[in-house]
């Protein structure tokens, strides 16, 4: 199953500069686990104590997974998972 994960600019150093990475998995959780398996340096940017960091928003084909089944949201061939870090500042 080919799933594309869009990597935000601040995390691209951990993916060798790649803006998009192909992963596999049946759920968002499994897809992100495959991303971490391929690029272990991404893990501390995405997760803390095994949970997705609160400032990382995950979208599945433009839908926020918080309004779906969160990390248990099913993914299918050809979907795009976008990782969007929240931006703050003043």
TrEMBL record:
Q: Species name for this entry?
A: Gemmata algarum
Q: What is this protein called?
A: MoaD/ThiS family protein
Gene3D superfamilies per record: 3.10.20.30
Q: Which PANTHER family match?
A: SULFUR CARRIER PROTEIN CYSO (PTHR38031:SF1), SULFUR CARRIER PROTEIN SLR0821-RELATED (PTHR38031)
Q: What is the lineage of its organism?
A: Bacteria, Pseudomonadati, Planctomycetota, Planctomycetia, Gemmatales
Write down the InterPro entries for this protein, in alphabetical order.
Beta-grasp_dom_sf (IPR012675), Mopterin_synth/thiamin_S_b (IPR016155), SAMP1_3 (IPR054834), Sulfur_Carrier/Prot_Modifier (IPR052045), ThiS/MoaD-like (IPR003749)
């Amino acid at each position: 199953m080919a799933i594309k994960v869009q990597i935000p600019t601040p995390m691209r150093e951990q993916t060798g500069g790649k803006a998009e990475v192909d992963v596999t998995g049946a759920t968002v959780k499994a897809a992100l686990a495959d991303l971490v398996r391929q690029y272990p340096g991404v893990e501390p940017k995405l997760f803390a104590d095994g949970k997705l960091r609160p400032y990382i928003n995950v979208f599945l084909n433009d839908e926020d997974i918080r309004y779906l089944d969160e990390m248990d949201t099913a993914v299918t061939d050809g979907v795009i998972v976008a990782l969007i870090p929240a931006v703050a500042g003043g």
